Amino acid sequence: MALELYLDLFSQPCRSVFIFAKKNNIPFEFKKISLFEGGQHAEEFGKINMMRKVPAIRDGDFTLAESVAILLYMAEKFRTPDHWYPADLQTRARVNEYLSWQHTALRMHGSKVFWFKLLIPKALGKEVPKEKMDSALEDLEGSLKMLEEKFLQDRPFIAGEHISLADLVAIVEIMQPVGAGVDVFAERPKLVAWRDRVQAVVGKELFDEAHQSILSAVKVMESLDSSKLQGFKPRIMKLLL
Ligand SMILES: N[C@@H](CCC(=O)N[C@@H](CS)C(=O)NCC(=O)O)C(=O)O
Asked: Where would you find the membrane-spanning parts of this chain (predicted)?
């Protein structure tokens, strides 16, 4: 039985799992969980991931959540090329360092900008207050600066000469605010050059396939029935406090 991947490509961690599986020719069945349709709350999905988040996988009678754990599981099970998760102790530690940092930095800040720019205005029918928006953009700037100055420095990729899971996890997060219309690459030549290298290794066709949904998010949001976002309201209220 092929691996089942439960994904919605609007979600950043789902895109990293999708790209990694496809790029490494890992056979899988794509199980679409539409977050805007509330697919994560379906009874069946609860049996795959009781946290009701995507991505999640099923491999026979084994289920697993959390994108980083899923990426590592696939890398180890399918013995993907070493550069993705290098055996060398210190190179691997560089990858781990980035994977540990990103959850509460680039991921959190990029997601927040996406919610503030697109999701919240649609759900509430009004813009997020300017000071909240400015603060979210400032946090995102801080994370991007850290990516450039601490994690990339003058290396082609985060772990050195070759692409790794760290670069994949980073690029999908960066594309989230881009999907909300924020040009994070403006005046960042180093980030642009890195993105181009990552895209070149992944392959443009696969990169575009994975990002098609998020890059049409502005349009999708325009035509979305806002009542579909009611389930997100409690979290929105907390974010706006
Ligand atoms: N730490 C988790 C985050 C998973 C996550 O937050 N997924 C979001 C989409 S990006 C989700 O499923 N949200 C559904 C919800 O919160 O209702 C990972 O890396 O997999």
From this structure: none
